[in-house]
Design brief:
By secondary structure, the protein is of the alpha/beta class. Helices cover 16% and strands 29% of the residues. A 7-stranded mixed sheet has the order 8-7-6-3-2-1-17, with no helix packed on it. It has a 7-stranded mixed sheet with strand order 9-10-11-12-13-14-16. A 3-stranded antiparallel sheet has the order 4-5-15, with no helix packed on it. Helix 4 (184-194) runs parallel beside helix 6.
Length: 255
C-alpha cells in the first residue's frame, strides 16, 4: 500500500495492485493560479485504474488533465457533473460514472465508498447547486480516506468510519480560508476525530494566485508544518507523513 502526493489535492493511492488517482491537476498554470512549488507531475502520474473527483471546481475537476488519462479509465465524478460541465462529454473514451454519498464502486479487488463533504460543489464561478462535494474511502488492504475539499462537520468520522490513512486538506490556493475548508487547526481536529494510524496533509503549498506572492506568504508555505505541530497535540497517536511533491510513502495500517 503506497501513497504518492503530486501536489495540491492530487495523489496516487496504490492498494492491492490497483492505482487510484485523486483530483488530478497537472498544469503549470490554472486560470489565475500558478504552480509555485514542485514540477508538474510526470506522465506516469496519469496512469490509473480509476480517478476520484471530489467536486467540480476547476482546481479539482480539470478537463485538460483528465484528457491525459488512458481510454477506459473509470472516472468517478459527483452526481450531475456531466450536465454542469459539458466538456466531460468530450471525454467519451473514459468510463464516466456519476456518484453521490452512499454509493460504492468496485475497482478490481478494491471498493470505493462515496461519503459527503462540507463544501460548495458546483462549477464555479456560476452554476446551480446540484452537484455534491464528495469524499471517498478506498477499502482494500487498507482503508484510505480522501476527504476532498471540505470543512469540518459533525458527522465526518461517522461517515468515513474506521480508517487507516487520512488524506486531509490543510490549506488552500489563496490568502484566507472559509469554514468550508480545513486549515491546519481544523484538520488537526478532524484527525483527532478520525483517529487513523497515519495521515498525509494535502491541498497546500502548490498553487497561488499570480501577483500575490507577497500577500500572506505563510498561508502558502507553512500549513504542512503547522499541521504536523498541531496534530502532535490533538492526535499524538497518529503518524503524520509530510511529503514533498512527487514523494511516496508506505503508511502504517492496522490490519
Amino acid at each position: 500500500m503506497e501513497i504518492t502526493w503530486w501536489g495540491h489535492a492530487t495523489c496516487t493511492v496504490e492498494d492491492s495492485g490497483v492505482r487510484l488517482l485523486t483530483d488530478p491537476v497537472f498544469a503549470r498554470r490554472l486560470a489565475h493560479l500558478r504552480r509555485r512549488r514542485g514540477a508538474p507531475p510526470p506522465a506516469r502520474a496519469a496512469v490509473a485504474d480509476a480517478v476520484l473527483v471530489s467536486h467540480l471546481h476547476a482546481d479539482h475537476l480539470h478537463l485538460p488533465s483528465l484528457a491525459r488519462l488512458a481510454a477506459g479509465t473509470k472516472l468517478l465524478v459527483p452526481r450531475d457533473a456531466v450536465r454542469a460541465v459539458p466538456g466531460l462529454r468530450r471525454l467519451a473514451r473514459l468510463d464516466v460514472v456519476e456518484v453521490g454519498p452512499g454509493d460504492t464502486e468496485k475497482v478490481g479487488p478494491v471498493t470505493v465508498r462515496v461519503v459527503p463533504a462540507l463544501h460548495d460543489g458546483r462549477r464555479m464561478p456560476v452554476g446551480p447547486r446540484r452537484s455534491p462535494a464528495l469524499g471517498f474511502v478506498v477499502d482494500g488492504r487498507a482503508r484510505t480516506y480522501f476527504a476532498g475539499d471540505t470543512g469540518l462537520f459533525d458527522t465526518m468520522a461517522e461517515e468515513a468510519g474506521p480508517v487507516d490513512v487520512a488524506l486531509l486538506p490543510v490549506g488552500g490556493w489563496g490568502p484566507g480560508l472559509g469554514h468550508h475548508h480545513l486549515d491546519a487547526t481544523r484538520a488537526a481536529e478532524a484527525l483527532r476525530r478520525l483517529a487513523p494510524a497515519s495521515a498525509v496533509p494535502v491541498h497546500y503549498g502548490t498553487y497561488w494566485p499570480i501577483g500575490l506572492d507577497a500577500v500572506r506568504p505563510h498561508e502558502f508555505h507553512s500549513p504542512g508544518d503547522e499541521f504536523v505541530r498541531k496534530a502532535a497535540v490533538s492526535a499524538p497517536g497518529v503518524r503524520v507523513h509530510l511529503l514533498d511533491h512527487g514523494e511516496s510513502v508506505r503508511p502504517e495500517v492496522r490490519r
